[in-house]
Design goal:
Largest sheet of chain A: 2 strands, antiparallel
CATH class of the largest domain in chain A: Mainly Alpha
Oligomer: heterodimer
Distance between the termini of chain A: 81 Å
Order of helices and strands of chain A: HHHEHHHHHHHEHHHHHHEHHHHHHH
Largest interface: A-B, 62 and 56 residues
Structural class of chain A: mainly alpha
Number of strands of chain A: 3
Strand order of the largest sheet of chain A: 1-2
Strand content of chain B: 25-35%
Mean pLDDT of chain A: 90
Radius of gyration of chain A: 32 Å
Radius of gyration of chain B: 31 Å
Number of domains of chain B: 2
Low-confidence stretches of chain A: 1-12
Low-confidence stretches of chain B: 1-21
Shape of chain A: elongated
Chain lengths: 489, 189
C-alpha cells in the first residue's frame, strides 16, 4: 500500500520536460530524491524526530567551517597558536568562523544527547535495529573523539593543559595505558608531535570514519524504517503513514533554523576566546575540560590506588558495554516508557549522575579559594591576550633574534668591528653568509673560543684561498669579535 | 547547506498544479521553505567568502619602508654614508626582520639617492673605499663610482638604487633584492 502511494506521488511529481528530464535520464536523480523525501513515517511527523537531521546539519557545518579554518591553520607547536591568533584577530570573519566551529562542537554534543535520549525513551532501537543502534554508538564515540582532538589544536594554555590531563587519564588503563598515552602524544611528553597526531585524527582519520558510518547509519535507518510513536509495533508498523516531505521536512528545518540563529548570535556576541600560548613550564595552571567532559573529569577524581581499576575501567566499561548491547539485552517489543521501568530508571539514574558530577565539579571549583582565584586569574590572562592586537611570529631566520642576544655589550662591540672591517662583505650582514663566504651562524656550536682565536690568527689554506685574511686586532677587539661570532645562532 | 538538497528536491513538485486546495497549501509552504533556505544558505556563505578572500582585500605580505634618518643629516654629505637598516617583511602570520647595509649618496645632479650594498655581481656586501673614493667589492674586485655607476669588474651593471620616500622629514627607503649577473635591474620576489 505504501509503495503504491509512493508511486502515485512520483507520477504526479515528475515533470518530464526540460533540463530536469535531461539530468534525470542521465542520473536518475528524481528517483533518489523521491526516495529521500517520501520516506514513510508511521503515526505521522513529529517534533520528537528532528534531532537526527539537526545532527547532520551541524556535521556539515563543522566540515565546511573546518575546511575553511584549515586555509590558515598550521599544525605544529611553533605555529599553531600564531595561526589561530591570526584567524581570530586578523582574518575577516575569522573569529566568527572559529567560534562557529568551536560552539558547533558543543551544539553537536547537545543535539547528540537529545537524539540518543529520544531514541532511548521512544524505544526506537527495538525491532531489528541492532546494527542501526551500534552504528549510532560508534558515531557517538567518534564525535567525542572529534571534540577531544580538536580541543588541543589552538595550542593555548587551556587546550594544552586540558589535553595533558585527558591523555594522562588514558595511562590509568591497566597494562596498555602507558602505551596508549604515548601513542596519542607521540612520545612521553606533549609536544609538536602530539599536535600532528591530533590534527591527523581530527582532520583525516575520524572524519573518514564518521562519513562512512554516517552513510551506514542513514542506510540502516531507511532499511529498518522510522520507528514511529511509542505505541507503534517496532517490527510491523500498523499506524497510518505520513511521508517525510513536507511536514517533517519543515519541522526538521525549524530546528536547523533555530540552531543557525542560536549559534550565529552566540558567535557574534560571545566569540570563543584564545588564551596565551601554551607554556608547559607553567606549574600553576589549573586545567579544566570542556563542559561535556566535566562528568568524567569529576568521576576520575574519586578513584585512587587499588580501587582505581574499578572506577576507571570496570564501572565505565560495564556502562559502555550495557549501552552498546542495549538492543540485544532489551528484546521486548514494548516501547512505551511507562511500561519499561528498568530502562527508564537506569536512563534517569545515569543522566542524574552525569549532571550531578558536572555540577559537583563546578561547585568544588567555586568553593576552593585557591582554585577559584587561579581560574579567575586564567580568565583575566585570556582576556588580556584577546585584547592585544595580532603580532606576527618572528621567523627563525630573523636577525631580531640575534639582536636580542646582543644585550651583551662585548658582543655588540664585536658587531661594530665586524662591520667596520667589512667582514659582512663576504660573510653577510649578521653572518648569514654570501656567495663568497660561508655563514657564521651556529659557529659557536662547532668550535670553541680557543679554536676560533686560532682560526682568526691562522686561517686554513682553504680559507686563505677564499680570500679570508688573518685577523690582526688588539686583544680586546678580537675578544669582542669572537663574542659577536659566538652570539650568532 | 543541508537544506540545499531539499530545495532542489522541491523544485519538480512545485511545477505540479492540479488545483486541489491541499496542493496549493503545499506549494505555499514549499515556496517559503525554498526562499527561507536559500536566504539562510546565502547568509551563511557570507562569512565563509569574506574569510577566504581576506588575502585579496588586505595586504598579507608587505615589505615595510625603513627609516634612514632626518633628511637634513644628509644634505651636506660629500661621500657615500653607510647606514644599517632593519627590514621588516610581513608574510601572513609571520614576519622576518633582517639587517642590511645601504649607502646614502648623491647623484650627478646632487639629488640624494640610496644604494643597496649588495653587489650586482654575486651579492657580496660592497664597502666604500675612502682612499680610492670608489666602492670596491672585496670578493671579485668590482669597482663602482660614488653614485653607484659601474667602473670595472665582472658585474654587468652598476650598484642598484633603492626606492626612497620622505615621511615627516625622515628619509625612508624600501629595501629590495635585484637579480644578479644581468645587465638590467630586475626586482626579485
Amino acid at each position: 500500500m505504501q509503495s503504491s502511494h509512493q508511486e502515485q506521488n512520483a507520477h504526479a511529481t515528475i515533470p518530464k520536460t526540460g533540463i530536469w528530464k535531461w539530468i534525470d535520464h542521465r542520473t536518475g536523480i528524481d528517483g533518489v530524491l523521491r526516495t529521500a523525501l517520501y520516506e514513510p513515517i508511521p503515526g505521522g511527523a513529529r517534533f520528537a524526530y528532528i534531532f537526527g537531521s539537526g545532527l547532520l546539519f551541524i556535521f556539515i557545518s563543522q566540515v565546511i567551517t573546518g575546511v575553511f579554518l584549515a586555509l590558515y591553520y598550521v599544525p605544529s607547536a611553533d605555529h599553531a597558536h600564531t595561526t589561530v591568533a591570526y584567524i581570530t584577530k586578523a582574518v575577516t570573519a575569522g573569529s566568527f568562523l572559529r567560534s562557529l566551529h568551536a560552539y558547533g562542537a558543543s551544539a553537536m554534543v547537545v543535539v547528540l544527547l537529545m537524539h540518543l535520549s529520544q531514541t532511548y525513551i521512544y524505544g526506537a532501537y527495538k525491532g531489528r535495529r541492532e546494527l542501526l543502534w551500534l552504528s549510532g554508538c560508534a558515531l557517538f564515540a567518534l564525535i567525542l573523539g572529534m571534540a577531544f582532538t580538536g580541543y588541543l589544536l589552538p595550542w593555548d594554555q587551556r587546550a594544552y593543559f586540558a589535553t595533558a590531563v585527558g591523555t594522562n587519564a588514558a595511562s590509568e588503563v591497566p597494562l596498555i595505558g602507558e602505551t596508549i598515552k604515548r601513542m596519542m602524544r607521540g612520545g612521553t611528553e606533549m609536544g609538536t608531535l602530539t599536535i600532528s597526531r591530533f590534527f591527523v585524527a581530527h582532520v583525516f582519520l575520524i572524519p573518514a570514519c564518521i562519513f562512512s558510518l554516517l552513510a551506514s547509519h542513514v542506510f540502516l535507518f531507511r532499511k529498518a524504517g522510522a520507528a514511529g510513536p511509542t505505541d507503534e509495533d517496532p517490527y510491523e508498523p500498523q499506524q497510518k503513514v505520513e511521508l517525510f516531505y513536507p511536514r517533517q521536512v519543515l519541522m526538521d528545518l525549524s530546528l536547523t533554523a533555530l540552531l543557525i540563529v542560536a549559534l550565529g548570535l552566540l558567535c557574534f556576541f560571545v566569540p570563543v576566546k584564545l588564551g596565551p600560548p601554551a607554556n608547559p613550564a607553567d606549574a600553576q595552571y589549573v586545567p579544566r575540560p570542556e563542559w561535556y567532559y566535566l562528568p568524567i573529569f569529576q568521576w576520575l577524581k574519586y578513584w585512587h590506588g587499588s580501587l582505581s581499576v574499578l572506577g576507571i575501567m570496570v564501572i565505565p566499561g560495564v556502562l559502555v558495554a550495557a549501552v552498546i548491547a542495549l538492543p540485544f539485552l532489551d528484546r521486548g517489543a514494548e516501547r512505551r516508557p511507562w511500561k519499561r521501568p528498568i530502562a527508564m530508571t537506569s536512563y534517569g539514574f545515569v543522566m542524574l549522575m552525569l549532571v550531578g558530577l558536572a555540577l559537583r565539579s563546578q561547585y568544588l571549583d567555586k568553593h576552593d579559594v585557591g582554585v577559584a582565584q587561579q581560574l579567575a586569574k586564567q580568565k583575566t590572562e585570556e582576556d588580556a591576550y584577546m585584547s592585544k592586537p595580532f603580532e606576527p611570529e618572528l621567523s627563525s631566520a630573523s636577525l631580531a633574534a640575534v639582536n636580542t642576544k646582543l644585550a651583551d655589550p662585548v658582543a655588540a662591540q664585536g658587531k661594530t668591528i665586524f662591520e667596520d672591517h667589512s667582514c659582512n662583505a663576504c660573510h653577510g650582514d649578521g653572518g648569514v653568509g654570501t656567495a663568497a663566504a660561508p655563514a657564521l651562524i651556529g659557529e659557536s656550536a662547532k668550535r670553541s673560543t680557543v679554536q676560533l682565536q686560532e682560526l682568526f690568527a691562522h686561517p686554513t689554506a682553504k680559507m686563505t684561498a677564499g680570500g679570508m685574511p688573518a685577523i690582526d686586532l688588539p686583544p680586546d677587539d678580537l675578544k669582542a669579535l669572537i663574542a659577536y661570532v659566538e652570539s650568532l645562532q | 547547506m543541508c537544506a540545499w538538497r531539499r530545495e532542489s528536491a522541491i523544485m519538480p513538485v512545485k511545477t505540479e498544479a492540479d488545483g486541489s486546495p491541499i496542493q496549493n497549501r503545499r506549494s505555499f509552504l514549499e515556496v517559503w521553505a525554498v526562499l527561507g533556505s536559500a536566504l539562510i544558505g546565502s547568509l551563511l556563505a557570507v562569512p565563509l567568502i569574506r574569510f577566504a578572500v581576506f588575502p585579496l582585500l588586505h595586504r598579507t605580505t608587505e615589505l615595510k619602508s625603513s627609516p634612514l634618518g632626518a633628511l637634513s643629516e644628509f644634505s651636506s654629505i660629500t661621500e657615500p654614508v653607510m647606514r644599517t637598516i632593519q627590514i621588516e617583511q610581513v608574510d601572513g602570520w609571520r614576519k622576518a626582520i633582517s639587517e642590511k647595509a645601504v649607502y646614502i649618496t648623491k647623484d650627478r645632479q646632487g639629488q640624494l639617492r640610496v644604494l643597496t650594498s649588495v653587489c650586482p655581481h654575486l651579492g657580496c656586501t660592497v664597502p666604500w673605499n675612502k682612499e680610492r673614493m670608489q666602492f670596491v667589492c672585496p670578493c671579485h674586485g668590482g669597482t663602482y663610482m660614488p653614485d653607484g655607476g659601474y667602473i670595472s669588474g665582472p658585474a654587468l651593471r652598476g650598484m642598484d638604487t633603492l626606492e626612497t620616500s620622505v615621511e615627516d622629514g625622515q628619509l625612508m627607503v624600501r629595501f629590495q633584492y635585484f637579480r644578479q649577473l644581468v645587465s638590467d635591474k630586475e626586482v626579485i620576489g
